[in-house]
Specification:
With 368 residues, this protein is an alpha/beta fold. The protein has 13 helices and 13 strands. The protein has helices at 41-49, 59-68, 76-87, 96-115, 120-123, 142-150, 162-169, 171-184, 212-220, 239-246, 258-270, 306-319, 332-342; strands spanning 4-5, 11-17, 21-22, 126-131, 135-140, 155-161, 229-233, 250-254, 276-278, 290-296, 320-327, 347-356, 359-367. Strand 8 (250-254), helix 11 and strand 9 (276-278) form a beta-alpha-beta unit. The protein is globular and about 65 Å long. The model has no long low-confidence stretch (mean pLDDT 94).
């Protein structure tokens, strides 16, 4: 889905990575027209719960289509969301069974278009505007975006202004990223680069639904992330750190490899998404405290060195206060035991079995 098409010289239709697709913005501060004719303070508060978050975290719509697909999901969150569009404005909500029947018919129609390999989703693209923070806000098409996301599409067609398209392409910086890749003689990348120039590059991880990011965002749901302090330990080229930054978190990446640091800086500039990073090993870094830690395929590299392992776990316990997203090496039981016995992260929930770089792994979340 990398095509660029347009019948309007001022508009562009192109495929955009799902990680860059966010719900609509706050209708008050954006000063834009809205499909709701009039709204109350109660409606606005309801709207804010789901405003300006990635489509991955848009729980009501995501769960609705998962339910229609026969997964272990419930349509309740969607029906409650739909009810409140009306009740928060003093109106009677439509009959829930009728709403569910209508949405199921829409689901079946969209699914049939996919089965026919039709051009429906390109001919009826999601309307969006580019956000200077490095992603797109939907103006119209939340249901289509959520449907395609649940079906596993990693890119979806958006229609945007030609000026938004040019800003997103950021051609000069795309050239700088190409030069960095050539200089470092990279033959592959670890995580996706969210830009049309690099769609042909196959990443080692996070390219097939559900990815590690999907599981983390599913766990977080619509809980507020704006201003949340996040540390990405061993952030590599910054994919997950940028994703959390786009959600409004205050992110610090820890990465001691000089080539990775140079690449993540070039990608931050390309994707208009900037986070602080520290080019040092985690166990010796001078850092503050964070609400959430991300530690994917990192700990197993240090746990065999007793002295480094002890320093690493001490730093982890001191710096991460609430949640720790973790992915193992090939011995998840030993890693979990070391973490639980040597830190305050005593509670654990498994999120998924994963596979990457030739190893069967485990993804989960620890809590204190």
């Amino acid at each position: 889905m990398a095509d660029q098409t347009s019948m309007n010289p001022h508009k562009v239709v192109c495929s955009v990575p799902i990680e860059l697709v966010f719900t609509d913005t706050d209708v008050k501060s954006s000063r834009t027209e809205h499909r709701i004719d009039h709204y109350t303070d109660a409606w606005f508060e309801h709207h804010l719960l789901h405003s300006d978050i990635s489509i991955m975290r848009f729980t009501p719509h995501r769960d609705l289509y998962s339910y229609f697909m026969g997964h272990q999901s419930s349509p309740e969150a969607y029906l409650e969301w739909h009810d409140k569009i009306y009740t928060t404005r003093g109106l009677k909500a439509p009959d829930r069974e009728a709403v569910l029947r209508q949405k199921q018919m829409e689901f079946m129609n969209m699914r049939n278009e996919l089965l026919r390999n039709s051009s429906f989703f390109m001919d009826h693209p999601i309307q969006a505007r580019y956000n200077p923070a490095g992603y797109f806000n939907i103006k119209d098409g939340h249901h289509r975006a959520s449907f395609l996301y649940v079906f596993g599409f990693r890119r979806v067609y958006l229609e945007m202004s030609s000026s938004d398209y040019a800003q997103w392409l950021n051609e000069d910086q795309a050239g700088a990223v190409r030069a960095t890749i050539q200089d470092q003689q990279r033959q592959l990348i670890y995580t996706p680069i969210l830009h049309p120039e690099f769609y042909s590059w196959s990443s080692e991880r996070d390219r097939v639904y559900p990815t590690r990011l999907d599981y983390m965002m599913r766990y977080l749901g619509v809980s507020p992330l704006r201003g949340t302090r996040v540390v990405d330990i061993g952030c590599n080229i910054g994919y997950h750190a940028r994703c959390f930054t786009r959600e409004g978190a205050s992110v610090t990446g820890i990465e001691h490899d000089a080539d990775h640091c140079r690449m993540l800086k070039a990608l931050n500039d390309l994707e208009h998404t900037h986070f602080q990073w520290i080019p040092e090993p985690f166990e010796g870094a001078s850092i503050g405290s964070y609400d959430i830690g991300i530690m994917l395929t990192v700990f197993y590299h240090v746990m065999k060195n007793e002295e480094v392992c002890r320093a690493f776990l001490d730093k982890l316990d001191q710096s991460v206060e609430q949640l720790l997203f973790w992915e193992s090496g090939d011995d998840p039981r030993k890693e979990k035991r070391l973490i639980q016995e040597n830190t305050g992260f005593t509670r654990y929930e498994k999120l998924a079995d994963t596979f990457g770089t030739g190893k069967l792994r485990e993804l989960g979340v620890f809590q204190k």
